[in-house]
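Handout, tutorial session.
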Amino acid sequence: MSVFTSIDAKDVSKNLPLMDINMAVETNGAYHNRFSETMFQNLHPQLNTYNELFNNAVTMFSNRPCLAYRPYNPVFQTYPSSYKTLSYTQVQRARCYLGSGILYALYKNQFKYSEVHNKIDNHLENWANFGATDHSFILTIYSDNRYEWILTDLACVGYSITNTALYDTLGESSTEYILNVTKSPVVVCSADKIKKLKKLKSSGKAPELICIICMDNNVKSYTDYDLKLEVFSFQDIISLGKSHKLNQMPPTVNTIYTISFTSGTTSNPKGVILKNEQAVAANTFLSTTMKRVNKGKTLVFLPLAHIYERQTSAYALSCGYMLGFPKSKKSSDVLRDLIEDLKIYRPDYVSLVPRILNKLQSEVKSYLEKVDDFKLNQIIEQKIMNQKSFDGNKASTSNDFYPPYVKLRKRFGLEYVDWINTASAPANPATLEFLRASMNIGVRQLYGATETFGAISTTSEYDTSINSSGIISICTQFKLGENNELLVRGATVTPGYFEDPEETAKAFQDGWYSTGDVATVGKKGEITIIDRAKNFFKMSQGEYVSPERLENIYVSCNTEIESIFIHGKPTESFLIGFLSLKDDNKIPKTRKEKIELLKRINGSVQGINRLEKIQNVHVGTKLLADILTPTFKLKRKDAIVKFSELIDALYEEGPLLSSKM
């Protein structure tokens, strides 16, 4: 079902975003967007695959800049102050050369031997028949965000090649598992990943791997006969594609676009099957809700290996936006790197996650304490109050031009940013209110999952619904199941998990996908996520606690906290915490200092009751660095295992504060 059928595909953007979509209604036990009870699949019948969306963008925005990057100078170890760009026409040409070159290099590869390698030889004959069960060989992308990542993804889309992605925080065992379960014969990666891949190959843990394509052109093409592996530079593959160019092999709606592996804490990650159907429906949702910016720009900050950034980046490409990529050499300070890139690139919007917003709020508050400008604080407080008065109220006044207020935005790189998207976990409402007012920008809170190809609901930029994740997509329906678990269905929802029928069966109830999230529904049909069902724990008093909500509040209300893990037991009456502080010098060395720290941080938190305040704590720096996902979500099970002995010790020591504190 298409949103528009009586207009030309090129005119669709003139009618977006849609109006009258700011409410959901219930029909026969299921909630749908009030725009229509019908669940839509795409914007237009001619925009039915991701490939068609990008080709349409090339037709409409041929000379606009598409991808922007700052090339690193290894000699001087610096970045230029400006971005190099590739236009939509240049990207179209490059992706066709790249796709052709990949197919040619694999076709000529001398080390093919298995059934999956037969898929390479038969690709030219079979690509038109690929579907949800019969797919191409699987190409793997393995690097941080860079323009070659997007170029490779678009090349796969143009030639009906299914892809997947690796990222280091999965761990070596998961990398091995993904390469084996997908039987991936080719990995397109950055130079720093080659050694890891060759190690896996040499130990017999990636037997199907016969080709590596390096994104960095300082690596020359060669053949490793001992490992039966061919290695190419990115430029050499493009040159092969120029010499042996193939016409596009466009996918159908049922062609598997990607297999996105979740960064769960189980022994093996689950591979979520996402067809072009899901990719297009996810794009349709964002296209119908997000405002259009003429010649817009976005910064690709979050990992492309995760579906959230992949969804928003694909949407940006379909709109003719320019995608800017962060510097590749990063420091240990994620927020500082982000601010640097924001200042130089000046995007119209950027997609972030609550942990980054918490850090940003903390830094802004710390700065405000230092400058001690009464009028500046008054402007922010008044704006918070005014923005609460009704949905969509930006609360603009002449004070927006007060020089210290303008300087505040500029200091944190948000001078030109119109709005921020946040997803991946519920954000603290106080954080959203503060950032909207202090940075004078809109913030959209979205909700979704890998299994729904990212976001399926969103608030407005200046939404007054406390904790809300907004209104459901026109492509999706939802209802609340047992124990208020959110269940969803529609074109954005995965058909299942790759090579895992058992997990697929567990995930669905009569055609509804079980999200594992506990939710409530507001007066306008808006979704509010309470927490992951598995994250809740019961205290000995019988009270249930949502640790993620508390963690967000503690970080956003305390400028000295870098990150926190909060834990409780059903046999205990109090909560404990594991704190990473920003300053080593503030780590308590005595019991008395620890008590003072607890009093200080508990005194700052707002909106939680006495039982939800932590009563004992272990403190350090960078405590949680190795147990965060690429989107900065805490791997809670890993944290429990890592700190198991300390958890027991803290409970044995008992609460350090009185029950009244």
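The second record follows below. Compare its token runs with those of the first.
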Amino acid sequence: MEKFEKLGLCEHVLKTISAKKFTEPSEIQEKTIPLIMEGKDVIAGSATGSGKTLAFGSGLIKSTEKGGGIKGLILTPTRELAEQVAGAIKDFAYHKDLEVTPVYGGVSIENQIKRLAYSDIVVATPGR
């Protein structure tokens, strides 16, 4: 846990990391989270399951306050990935109570439009 604290993550994310019993950040997290927390733009790649979502999501969660409209947009190539990323961001933002909404085609657009009215972060596919 101490290594995660040194990365500059907000207390809300640290609570979730502790609850999930993560002990050490992955290589991609160690290299990118400090830069993201400083507000720098980062382009990075890593294998599936390496912790990229926590890495890029942590900065967004830290800078987002609940209410007042959409403050973050994450684009994914498929609806399956949109669901997966939205679920992970919801988990890590749990203690901050942010509304994270996945938006993609193939389902009712009306329900998605309603949810956008109170969403803080949207995870979407380009087609929607």
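Points raised in discussion: The CA atoms of residues 69 and 117 lie 7 Å apart.
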